[in-house]
Amino acid sequence: MRGRLLIDEPMARHVSWRAGGRAARAYVPADLADLRAFLAALPATEPVLFVGLGSNLLVRDGGFRGTVILTHGALKEVRMDAGRIYAEAGVAAPKLARFAARHGYQGAEFLAGIPGTVGGALAMNAGCYGAETWQLVDEVLTLDRRGTLRRRNPNDFEIGYRHVALRGAPSGAASEEWFVAAWFTARAGEGAAAQQRIKALLEKRIATQPLNLPNAGSVFRNPPGDFAARLIEACGLKGRRIGGAQVSGKHANFIVNLGQATAADIEALIELVQATVAGETGITLEPEVRIVGEKT
Ligand SMILES: Cc1cc2nc3c(=O)[nH]c(=O)nc-3n(C[C@H](O)[C@H](O)[C@H](O)COP(=O)(O)OP(=O)(O)OC[C@H]3O[C@@H](n4cnc5c(N)ncnc54)[C@H](O)[C@@H]3O)c2cc1C
């Protein structure tokens, strides 16, 4: 092993909510070859969780009893590859957006506003302003726990709104095939104009999102034909607080950590919002954020 193995690692360091429990083990691979060897050597029963920038993730206070693979800063290659953009899973999505713009491509600008990794964007089909990650994907490289690499194309996956699943995989089961890289095809265009759009998009985000406090972006998926933020605000929940967690006054679909929030505070507030919105409107909001690990 050439990477770094961390024992009893506080996951608050690795998630954007800056809250939550520890991982029994966390591994920062040296590179893709090292990650293949590491996964192949793990016991078959060891739970594995891939984490990018943790910007859509809550690890409960009792922690994750398995091995977390930390891809950010590890799988970090991004380059042109015969007219396509090749990016490894740990590359930050905004870095990919800027790389595409610098190389004269357009269509990837929206990724500048998504503070996760390429791997997280692929897993979530992250998107905003009418664009989604998989619209740009030509091919992906996946890795399974035996260390086998596979090149797959979008037809191998069911792809929807914040939803990606390998076709034929048991529904609801955690995927045992993870994204380690992808080839993207953005449209050839005017690089300077793309860079201008990135700038405008970031200004809009700063104006509308509570980026000064730890958060995980939109907590709930938008229900068909409506907006989670609108429903939460209409139920008078802006500013509602449990412990150190608060429904943002700036954007009702964000929950911010006021400083000392536990994962339990955040999860309790998620449940309170769900129950209140369901009680008042009959609509059940589904979380977009992923919640893993054990309760204390
Ligand atoms: C301020 C803010 C704004 C945001 N705005 C948006 C937005 O506009 N649109 C949007 O869609 N999201 C948004 N998000 C949410 C988040 O940034 C995205 O979901 C992002 O794609 C998550 O990437 P990540 O690397 O942080 O993933 P993580 O949070 O680390 O992981 C998320 C999920 O993906 C899985 N995963 C991570 N890496 C891999 C991999 N390599 N292979 C397989 N599975 C993997 C994890 O196991 C987990 O289930 C926002 C978040 C914040 C904090």
TrEMBL record:
Domain of life from the UniProt record: Bacteria
Enzyme class: oxidoreductase
Pathways involved: Cell wall biogenesis; peptidoglycan biosynthesis
Reactions listed under catalytic activity: UDP-N-acetyl-alpha-D-muramate + NADP(+) = UDP-N-acetyl-3-O-(1-carboxyvinyl)-alpha-D-glucosamine + NADPH + H(+)
Keyword Nuclease: no
Cofactor: FAD
Protein name in UniProt: UDP-N-acetylenolpyruvoylglucosamine reductase
Source organism (scientific name): Thiobacter aerophilum
